[in-house]
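Possible regression after last week's pipeline update?

I re-ran a chain I had predicted before the update to compare outputs. Posting the input and the new output here so someone can diff against the archived version. Not blocking, just want to make sure nothing changed silently.
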Amino acid sequence: MAPNKTYTITSSDSEPAGFILPDLLSDCRYPLRVNSHSHYVSRASEEWLFTEAHVVEPEISKFRALRTHDLMAYCYPDADASHFRILSDFVTWGFMIDDNLDDGDVDDVRGMRECCISTLRDPINFQTENPAGKMCKSFISRFMETAGPGCAERFIHAWDSFFIAVAKEVDNRAKGHIHNLESYTALRRDLSGSKSCFILVEYAARIDFPDEVVSHPVIMAMEDAANDYIAWSNDIFSYNKEQSRHDTYTNVIAVLMREQGLDLQSAVDYSGQLCKNAIQRFEDNRAILPSWGEEVDRQVAIYIQGMQDLIVGTLHWSFDSARYFGKDGETVKRDRFIKLLPKRPY
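New output (post-update):
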């Protein structure tokens, strides 16, 4: 075993020069599984994105560096090839939507919501020339071929909640609204996109849960716990890039620093403990699951396994992808030290 490395995390002017990541990998012991269809299906999905969204170099290379095929392979290891293709198209579309909304105002978000939700609800009759809308029309038409009615409606509702949350975030930022941890967590659960990802577990397994399962407090508590883990760990990984561009408004680390007066490392450590607590909440609720009968219980077990796969899959992908750490993911994974990027000029 290599000796532990020691870092200086303050610079000469007492400003932090970096921070040490929480040991999230040790706290998350779920096994990482991989979908065997990933390579060839994901290539086809990439080509679909590049064609439909008119993506050219250098954006093609940047997108491939995200390694979205690994993300999907880790998060949906049991999906068959046909469902995995639709899941892959969804995530490539989702990344495009997320990036398109980064610099938008409230009207931009509302316009995108109108286009995408109208397409999701009526992909045959709703007409649009917006590339995001055209891509949405493509994958949702295929999604609807095997999705149950409850699953389909929950998927659309999750996306509508996402767009509403993005608009609220943009409006809050413009008005200078400051979140506390409670209000931030409530908003972040819709912003993370995890709700739609959970529903895709149901879709890929050809499940359509009855309302008594979907609305059960234990299931909802497990969904919240998994969502919180994915969102907060993402905040930890994305903080460095966000602080360099003065954009930490939607980040749990910044929320904790403002609300509780913590320094950077203390806020990072606190965020790591929140992640650890989220996994414990997930397990505590797993232990008290009720029974709905043999067949529904089997389906619930598949769904819970899917949420577990999303927790561990997003964690490992964050180091594999260039999205957060560029080419240094393996080094960061090993050493857990993040050197702060210099802040860009305003």
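Follow-up from reviewer: compared with the archived run. Confidence is low (pLDDT under 50) at residues 1-12. Marking as no regression found.
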